[in-house]
Amino acid sequence: MKPPRADQACPCGLPARYEACCGRFIDHWPAQPAPDPERLMRSRYTAFVRGRADYLRATWHPGHRPAAIDFEPHTRWLGLEVRRARLVDATHGEVEFVARHRVAGRAVRLHELSRFVRQDGHWLYTDGDMLN
User: Fold this and answer.
1) Angle at 116 between CA 39 and CA 29, to 5 degrees
2) What span, in angstroms and rounded, lies between the C-alpha atoms of 80 and 101?
3) Read out DSSP for 46-104?
4) Please, what's the b/e burial string for 47-61 (b: 16 or more CB within 10 A of its CB; e: otherwise)?
5) What residues of the chain score a pLDDT lower than 50?
6) Per DSSP, what are the bridge partners of residue 85?
7) What is the pLDDT of residue 5?
8) C-alpha to C-alpha distance for 111 and 96, rounded to whole angstroms
9) What is the phi/psi pair of residue 23, to 5°?
10) Three-state DSSP class for 19?
11) How far is residue 94's CA from residue 87's CA, in Å, rounded to a whole number?
């Protein structure tokens, strides 16, 4: 997959270019970690869009990380909506989001409440519950 152009909008939906938004976390991990669970979730969505398994694995809690990340061929990501994000305490957070994409022409809607933990100065995705 081609790297995003410097002037390209970030896939996460925030009004910024990739390099100034999620790109600074994805391309400069671990020196510049996402500052909070919402930014980590947005950057992980962008990593899915860009096919960046390295970043997804790096930001997945080791106790929950899959052995491999397989990207569905012919997936077209359509958008991300963050419904709510909150810090539970200084080391735990939650983000509810809806991510839409198409796989081989079929529409898919992923609605999840994700959980994050902060370890050694880095927020990590642990797991999530699928919502309707």
Assistant:
1) 50
2) 9
3) HHHHHT-HHHHHHTB-TTT--S---PPTTEEEEEEEEEEEEEEETTEEEEEEEEEEEET
4) bbbbebeebbebbbb
5) none
6) 95
7) 64
8) 7
9) -60, -35
10) helix
11) 6
As a whole number of angstroms, the distance between CA 75 and CA 90 comes to 36
Of 38, 49, 51, residue with least CA distance to 100: 49
Q: Which two tokens stand for residue 91?
A: 């080391």
Which of 37, 53, 55, 109 minimizes the C-alpha distance to 77?
Answer: 109
Tens digit of each residue's pLDDT (9 = 90 or more) over 46-77: 999 999 999 999 999 999 999 999 999 889 99
**CB-based contact 13:42 (threshold 8 Å):** yes
Strand order in the sheet with 92-103: 75-89, 92-103, 106-119, 122-130
CA distance 73 to 64: 24
Interatomic CA distance for residues 26 and 32, integer angstroms: 9
- pLDDT at position 73 is 87
What type of residue sits at position 4? P
Q: What is the pTM of this model?
A: 0.94
